[in-house]
Amino acid sequence: MNICVFCGSNPAIGEPYVTAAREVGQAIGRGGHALVFGGFEMGLMGEVARAAKAAGARVIGVVPKTLVGAPHRVIFDADELIQTVDLAQRKRVMEDAADGFISLAGAYGTLDELYEVLAMRKAAQGSPAPVALVNTDGFYDPLAAMHAVMLERGFMSQDDFDYARFVPDGAAAVHALERA
């Protein structure tokens, strides 16, 4: 299974998020899966990629040409590197290459990638590939609460609510994708 991981790239992020990223990478490798990710060496992106590769996973990096060579944007030594025209094409390539998705902590880019997958599934334009959100240190608690409000007020169906699985750690995330 090709598992796409969305996560933050800020190199200043520390514990417990670094450990969570490493756990996801290790679980992907131990499960015999491949990692599809944003292609850069820094932040949680680099942590998950290094751990996946060390655990035997094939690593596929997807990098927009607009960011290649930018300061502090070191590309990870992936088994396969795909360069895209821009961030929008990068998302499409990652989505098309993935059989399942895991979202770790991150900011705008991470949420954009995550919600594009969820929205495309809702619009029946994307694959029904499973999605797991790793709720490290309660990071996704506010989002889970917002999903509950959307469900309660009729903006989201029970199927849509159940589609985004909030899990406690990396092993549970990979397990959720394997079960789906």
Question: Would you write up a description of this structure?
Answer:
- The chain has 180 residues and is of the alpha/beta class.
- 44% of the residues lie in helices and 18% in strands.
- It is built from seven helices and seven strands, in the order βαβαββαβαβααβα.
- It has helices spanning 17-30, 43-54, 87-97, 108-122, 141-152, 158-163, 170-179, and strands spanning 2-6, 34-37, 59-64, 80-84, 100-103, 131-134, 164-167.
- A seven-stranded parallel beta sheet has the order 4-3-2-1-5-6-7, sandwiched between helices.
- Strand 1, helix 1 (17-30) and strand 2 (34-37) form a beta-alpha-beta unit.
- Helix 1 packs parallel to helix 2 (43-54) and helix 1 packs parallel to helix 7 (170-179).
- The radius of gyration is 15 Å and the shape is globular.
- It starts with a strand and ends with a helix.
Key terms for this structure?
7 strands, globular, alpha/beta
What general outline do the C-alpha atoms trace?
globular
Q: Provide the helix percentage.
A: 40-55%
- Whole-number radius of gyration? 15 Å
Instruction: Please report the number of helical segments.
Output: 7
Unreliable residue runs: none
Question: Mean pLDDT, nearest integer?
Answer: 93
Query: Secondary-structure element order, as H and E?
Result: EHEHEEHEHEHHEH
> What is the structural class?
alpha/beta
Largest sheet, in brief, is: 7 strands, parallel
**First-residue to last-residue Cα separation:** 12 Å
Sheet with most strands: strand arrangement: 4-3-2-1-5-6-7
Query: What quaternary form is this?
Result: single chain
